Amino acid sequence: MLWIAIRMLTGDAQKFYGLLFGIAFSTLLITQQLTIFVNLIERGASGVYNAPEAEVWVMDPVSRTTDVNYAMPSTALDEVRSVPGVEWAVPHLRAVASVRTGTGDLEGVAIIGVDDATLIGMPENMVAETKEVLSQPDAVVIDDGGVFNLFENGEDPIGQRLELNDQRAVIRGVADSIPSFTSQVVLYTKYSQALNYVPGTRNRLTFVLAGVTEGETAAGVADRIEEQTGLKAETREEFAQAGVDFIVQNTGIPTNFGITVVLGFVVGVAIVGLTFSLFIRDNIKQFGALKAIGVTNSKIVGMVSAQAALVGAVGYALGVIGTVTFIWAFSGNPFFKGFYIPWQIPLISLAAVVVILAITGWIALRSVLNTEPASVFR
Amino acid sequence: MNAESAICARGIIRDFQAGQSTIRVLHGIDTDIRSGEMTYVVGESGSGKTTLISIMCGILWPTEGEVQVFGTDIYSLSDTELVNFRLNNIGFIFQQYNLIPSIDAAANAAVPLIAKGMAIEPARQKAIELLEKLNIGDQANKLPNQLSGGQQQRVAIARALVHEPRLVVCDEPTAALDASSGRRVMDLLREVAVAPDRACIIVTHDNRIFDLADRILVLEDGRVTHDGTDMPDDH
C-alpha cells in the first residue's frame, strides 16, 4: 500500500512539487538564517580567534569584549608577568581611528598594536607578505576583508600610503583574519607604532596577552592573575564566549533572526498544510474506497505517513542543498568569509520539518480517518 | 443454481440524526440474499437502498438488527476483523468508480490483492489476466484518465473481482453509461460476478436493465415492498 501511497502523491505533480517547495523553502530559510546567525555572532569572538597564541586575556575589570574595553596603566604588564604560572605576557592595544585613503575617502578603522618583539597578537596566517614587514618604518598590515573596503577591486594594497590620525602609515602586508562583527577595516601594527596612531591618553594598554607555563591550566593562571593584580583575566574560550554573549545581549540580531526562523516554520506549516489538505481532499473518495474495500486505518496512517516522509526527506534534502549552495556561492564574498554550517543546524531544521509534517499530516489524516467507508456510496 | 443464503438480514433499522430530529431510513427490514443470483435493490431516491446495501456489506452500522454474511454476524466483529472480513469476502463497484488517478489500470485492479499483502508485480499480473477476460487487457498500462467511462467501469469490475470475493456489491453500475453500454456491463457482470458460490447485489434505479435481474427487491420509504423475479406492474 505504501507503493500506492507514493504513486498517489507523485502522480499529482502540482501538489507534490508544492509540498516539496514548502518543505524545501522552510528548510532553506531555517537552515540558512540560523547559519548566518551563528556565524555572525561568532564574529563577536573574532578578535580573540585572531590572536591564537594568547591563552589568557588580561584587562581592566570593566572591559567586556575585545571591542568594548577600557585601557589600563602600562604597569599592568609587569604585574601580570610577575604572577606565578605566567610564561610570557605581552602588551596588546586595540583602538579606533580614522584613516584617509589615497582617494580622499575617510574610513573608520580598528588599530591593533601587537608586541614589537614577538608580534604576538597578529593573525596566524598572512595573505600577502610576512608578519615581519611590521619592522619596516610606518608599516601596517591590513586584514584581507579591509582590502575590499578600502580599495577598488583588483587594486594592490601593498605599498599604499594612508593618513592615520595625521600620521603616515604604509600598508606592507595583508593578514588572513576572521572578519569582525562590524566588518570594520583592521590595521595591525607594532605596539610602539600604535601608540603614535591613536590619540594620546594617560592609559593606552587595553589588554595583556599571556601564555601559561607547562603544567598550569589557563583557568588556574587566570584566577591567580585576578587574585594578585585585581585585573580581570579570562581564558581564551571564556573571552571568546563573552564576545558572542555581548552581541546576543546587546543587539536585536537574535530577535530578528529568530523572527525569520519562526516565519520559515510558519510558512512551512501554511504551505505544506494547505497543499497536503488539498491533496487529501482531492483523494478523499479514493481513500474512502480503500477503506470500504478493506484497507485498515493503520494502513491508511502508514500511507499518509509514507507520503509525508517522502515529501519531508526530499524537501529537507533540497533545502539543505540550497543552503550549502548559498554558502558556497557566496564564499568568495568577504562578508561570508569562513562561514560554515554547524552540524547542529541541519538537525534543528530536521526537527522543524518533522514537526511541520507531524502537524500537517495529523490534520490531513484526521479527515481521512473520519471519512466513513459508506460515504463512497453517496 | 445454488440458492443458499449469502446474506441474512433481520430487523434492520437505521436512524440518522438531522439536527434535533431523528430520521428513520430503514424500518425493520428482514431479507435474504442468495448465492448464485444477481439481486437488484431498486427504489426511488431516498428509499433507503444505498443505506441497506451499506449495512449488508459491513460499511455502515445498523441502529438495530443483525446481519449475517456467509454465516458470520459481521457487526459482532471488531473493527479490524470487520475490515479484514470485507477485504477477504466482498468486492465493491462504486458508481463513480473511485479509481486512483495516478496508478495504471492494472494496479488499480490489483488494489485488493496489494491490500492483502501480495507483492506489486504478481498482483498486477493477476489483475491483467482479469482485465484480459474483461477485454481491456491492452489498456492495462493506461491511467484512468486515458480510459473511456466504460473502460473505467471494467477496471472497477476487475478490482471488485480480482481477489475472488464471495459477495459483489455494485452501486448504480450503469448510471453513467448509455443503454447499450449499460447492458454490456450487466452482461459482463453476470458472466464474471455471478457464480454458484457468489452473490451479487446491484443497487439501481435504471429500469433499462431490470429484465437482467434474477431477483428484485423494491424499497419504498425504508421498507421492502416487493420481493420477486420481476418488477411489479405499478413500477
**Beta-strand percentage range of chain A:** 15-25%
Low-confidence stretches of chain B: none
Taking the alpha carbons of the first and last residues of chain A, their distance comes to 25 Å
DSSP strand count of chain B: 10
Number of domains as seen in the coordinates of chain A: 2
Indicate how many domains the architecture of chain B comprises. Answer: 2
Instruction: Calculate Rg of chain B over CA atoms.
Output: 18 Å
Proportion of strand residues of chain B: 25-35%
- Supply the CATH class of the largest domain in chain B: Alpha Beta
> Mean pLDDT of chain B, rounded to whole units?
85
Summarize the structure.
The complex is a heterodimer of chains A (378) and B (235). With 378 residues, chain A is an alpha+beta fold.
Please explain how this structure is put together:
The complex is a heterodimer of chains A (378) and B (235). Chain A is 51% helix and 18% strand. Chain A contains 12 helices and 10 strands. In chain A, strands 2-3-8-5-7-6 form a 6-stranded mixed β-barrel. The longest helix of chain A has 33 residues, at 297-329. By secondary structure, chain A is α+β, with helices and mostly antiparallel strands. Chain A folds into 2 domains: 2-43 and 252-377, no CATH class; 73-230, no CATH class. Chain B is α/β, with parallel strands linked by helices and 235 residues long. Helices cover 30% and strands 29% of the residues of chain B. Chain B has 7 helices and 10 strands. In chain B, strands 6-7-8-3-9-10 form a 6-stranded mixed β-sheet. In chain B, strands 2-1-4-5 form a 4-stranded antiparallel β-sheet, with helices on one face. In chain B, a hairpin with a 2-residue loop joins strand 9 and strand 10 (223-228). The radius of gyration of chain B is 18 Å and the shape is globular. In chain B, 50% of the residues are buried. Chain B: GO terms for molecular function: ATP binding; ATP hydrolysis activity; transmembrane transporter activity. Chain B: Residues 7-231 form the ABC transporter domain. Chain B: It comes from Erythrobacter crassostreae.
